[in-house]
Amino acid sequence: MVKVFIYPATSLILSDMVSRFGHTPLSSAIAVRERIQTAGLESPPLQITPEEPKKGLRWAAVEVPAGVRGRMSLYGPQIEACEAAIIINDADLSFGCMGCARTNELIKFLLRQKDIPKLDLYYPKNEEEGVQFVAAIKRFLDALGGKK
Amino acid sequence: MTEYTPVLAGTVTKYVVVESFDITPADLGIRAYEISKDAMVKETCFGLVINGKQEEVDRIIAELRKIDPDHIFVKDRGFPPGDPRRCRANLGGARPGYHGMENEMTVIPYVSHGLEAIKTRDLSTIPLPQNPLEHKELDFSRLKKLIDAQES
Amino acid sequence: MTPPVRIAQLSCGAEYSGIQHEIDDAAREVGGEIFFPDIALKDIRRDFDLFGLDVRSPDLKLAIARAKALVEGRVEADAVFIATCFRCAEAAIVRNELRRYITEQSKLPVVSYSFTERTTSGTLLTRMEALTTIARRRALLARETQQGITLGLDSGSATTKAVVMKDNRIIGTGWQPTTEVLKSANDVIAHALAEAGITRDDVQAVGTTGYGRFLVGKEIKADLIQEELTVNSKGAVYLADRQHGPATVIDIGGMDNKAISVMDGIPGTFTMGGICAGASGRFLEMTSKRLGVDITELGPLAMKGMGAKVPMNSYCIVFGTQSLVNALAAGSTREDVAAAACHSVAEQVFEQQLQEVDIKEPVIMVGGTSLIEGLVFAMGELLQTKVVVPHHSQYIGAVGSALLASGFIKDD
Which strands form B12-18's sheet, in the order they lie side by side? Predict the structure, then answer.
């Protein structure tokens, strides 16, 4: 099983495809789960405390807004851990964890810097594109190997 | 600041979303209750939210997928079902992630179609989708055709 | 129990900066309740396109669509809180445009704020209190005349002020630097009562405002304990006799500055804060000490000087003072240095705060610093308008409190 970072990290479709075809998706939910299952100081709703934007300094300088750094504290470790990535390039309506365009630009940049297999796509807009979309993802994931 | 003690630590939560003409979230719910040993199953408008130990949740989902594999989709969720921090009733409005899912639901039928199609078509013959990183330049002959069409 | 004031939150980044619960706590503390306007994806697509501000961040698109739902009455709210990350240019544009849009198109009170991970509920409290007050106490704020005998106390960070009013007139005042909060309060009250020639028992209602309002309010059993944004707005338009129509109130205080856009005496949008003490009354106090003059002499001194002759290129109180010292050493006149100090403070308030409120005439300056005529002059030059300084402007919070407190006089 290969750890695949999905973009948007909140994507139901990508999360499903990656696990359906035998790999491990790295997504927002996994990062948020880690936060809310870790004891510490109370900071609802996401259990992101003011410490997280400080942890985010590893990926973004102090002059970068706190929201970007806080988000990077979720995604930074996943970007470092991932062994492959699937990126949907027209995910303009992904809110919340993917709600900040500046963070999203940084995530994509860091993924592109990384020497790992990557698949860039658009969302399908009709049935035939749906076939090409699924086929491309399956071929990409099959080629990653390490499948159980 | 108040100390925070996590609840349901060590468990996983997953959404099971159904987009199908043949089965409803309720059908899925009934099946999940039948096969669940100690997982928490909650029905929602789009499918189910299941919480429990990783192996148990995976086992239930593997069974559920069999009902309609091309129309059932699964993703992780950070919060356990009904968590007040994400509950619509407490927030006044949907959590932001809901709208993202709403957005993907408009695309899901094409993905379902794709999943069905790759079973009958040779994967290697299916053309690649458009690569967003390749900016297609307008072919010269096509440009000429466009100009000619405009002039005639 | 009164139902909570429903405050709609339009934001980007608060949860991820770790400060969402600080916003929730601040609202709860002043009887408010934060909620997120519920809209559907199709509303987001449509309203974002209709609004026409083509931002990239999805959460800002969501904020825009939610704002439209509020203005069009599809979602009900009592007030709006707009919050985005400090240092995000995209969000700053959205924050400003949404605030303007909501203020112009609806009667909803709005507060906007740019936060960092260091923002606490304490920082947000006064803003939230003003927001819930405007939403809940429109009737109280409609008061235009003072009745009976009332006492107003302003427990500020630098000075404590008291005013006794009777039948719409100020009959006693008290003023002193804040040392021990309660002692200072008692002293100025005693002074104001003595000047008015009455006793505490004659007072029919009491109001407090300022940083120490809760502590003092509890001690002296105040009928009204109210933050200074609404109180000062009321006090300013009352004293300046501009109770109807628009006005802009500027209060450069000891610890922070307020710029309030007022309509019919009720605050609409406002900003509060100041990045550095270099933009506060404290800086002028330090300047006058350096120049060896009393703070009351700084204004007239500044009026004789030319600020532009002295290089002031620091916003910091420490380095700013250093610049002034260097200028004196290099042969600048005390008049020019005084004028430069006044200009520096006015310019910082202008650049950092007045950009965020819509300046409508008359511009009314209040608070102790409004007595420094060099500062008022500098502000007028920057705003290209004649700034109004009403009588008793240094007692603004106390006057506003006394005025509003008369709404609490019990009919016997």
Answer: B40-43, B47-52, B12-18, B72-77
How many residues in total does chain C contain? 412
Q: Would you give the DSSP letter of residue C277?
A: G
Helix (H, G, I), strand (E, B) or coil at B136: coil
pLDDT digits (tens, 9 = 90+) for C63-95: 999 999 999 999 999 999 999 999 999 999 999
Do B100 and A93 count as a contact with CB atoms less than 8 A apart? yes
C118 and C176 part of one domain: no
C3 shares contact with chain B (CB less than 8 Å): no
pLDDT of C314 > 70? The answer is no
pLDDT tens for residues C251-283? Answer: 988 777 889 989 888 887 788 875 577 778 888
Residues listed for chain A: 148
Clarify whether residues C98 and C201 are in a common domain.
no
Residue B128, min C-alpha distance to chain A (Å): 6
The CATH number that applies at residue C199 is 3.30.420.40
Ramachandran angles phi, psi of A110, nearest 5°: -65, -35
Spell out which residues of chain B touch residue A99, defining contact as CB-CB under 8 Å: 96
Tell me which H or E stretch contains C38.
none
Strands B12-18 and B3-4: unpaired
* ipTM for the assembly: 0.96
- Picking from C204, C180, C175, the residue whose alpha carbon sits closest to that of residue C190 is C175
Inter-chain CB proximity B92 and C37 less than 8 Å:
yes
Structural contact between residues C287 and C327, judged by C-beta atoms closer than 8 angstroms: no
The domains located in chain B, with CATH, are: 12-125 (3.30.70)
Partners of C38 on chain A (C-beta within 8 Å) are none
pLDDT tens-digit series, residues C217-233: 999 999 999 998 899 99
In whole angstroms, give the CA distance from residue A95 to residue B100: 6
